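Task card 7
Instruction: Convert sequence to structure tokens.
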Amino acid sequence: MSENLPLRDKNISKTSFNSQRNSRRPRKNEVGRIFESGALINILRVKDDRKLLRRKHIAILLSQLEPIPNPKLRWESYTLDSESAATIVYIAAYEHDDIRGKKVIDLGCGSGILAIAASLFGAEWTVGVDIDREAIKVAIKNASKVGVQVDFINGDIGCVSGHFETTLMNPPFGSWHKGADINFIKKALEISNVVYLVHKRSPSVKDFLSSTIPKLGGVIDRIYNIDIVIKRIFKFHRKKYYNVKAALYRIISETYKD
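Output:
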């Protein structure tokens, strides 16, 4: 059993999780070694007219992270590619100001790529939650590798409580476990003002989410088309890479709507 460590928000139950915390804070000299041109801390402070450069460099940084080890098909454990992860959090950070200075949670964080990206884009506090203990161990290692602080929790999302401004998530699509995606959406709307959901891009999924999300207390604000690259990880995968047409849904919670 993992060590029970203190969490940084009293509204999250400490008894519901086996929590593992990365307590290291960013080190300018350590992070700066990743880029020959200068420390990441300087990149993050550039003006908005250079935000494309910022996204590019963060994508490079995210490409250094380790993927989910021993992915589980029952949990649909697919690791987002670095370009997609950087784009998702970039949209949340710069088109909607939902990241910088905000409390952000990544539900089903896997190896931590979205949570780490949120921290790099300036989140005040970032939490990642996943049921896969092996994935959480790698997520902690990944955050330490790039020099950011993220609190990772090993546990089921159903036990999460508290309040966050923003939820990021690339949940199971429900292909192997029906209703898994809805459980994630329901929990995200309970605990946060705004939700960024990655899902399959198809008319049937769009219609389903458009009719289901209002029943869960949410309003779809925007839908972005994104292309995700998935590496071969399961035995039934024949190709080395798969290009998946996905959609990023920005959903506003009616509970916390201004």
